[in-house]
Design brief:
Layout: E1 2-7, E2 10-15, E3 18-23, E4 35-39, E5 42-47, H1 49-66, H2 73-76
Antiparallel strand pairs: 1-2, 2-3, 4-5
């Protein structure tokens, strides 16, 4: 979603499904035009234009699939195509016996 304006500790944002008010207590004040990932009514992460574009393309693909359209998944998930899955940094170098 893209921030339209701040109102107190909330950001009014515009996304694919219209406007929403997101709590910003986890990230702090935001500027109009910034991109954010929201979950359960709160901003979870501030993202850049490129990440917002990639997420938009992935959501376009999912909407197309749900509508029964033929979708070029490699094009819509270009950042993931042709590479092996990667563990998050905090799990790299941890043996599976050490995981909880």
């Amino acid at each position: 979603m893209q921030v339209i304006r701040m109102e107190g500790s909330s950001a009014v944002c515009l996304g694919r499904n219209g406007e929403a008010r997101l709590d910003t207590l986890l990230c702090g004040p935001l500027e109009s035009g910034q991109w954010v990932l929201g979950f359960l009514g709160a901003v979870r992460e501030v993202i850049d234009d490129e990440r917002a574009r990639l997420i938009g393309e992935a959501l376009d693909a999912l909407e197309g699939l749900l509508a029964g359209e033929a979708v070029d998944l490699d094009a819509h998930f270009a950042d993931l195509a042709g590479r092996a899955p990667q563990l998050p940094a905090f799990l790299q170098g941890v043996s599976h016996n050490e995981c909880p």
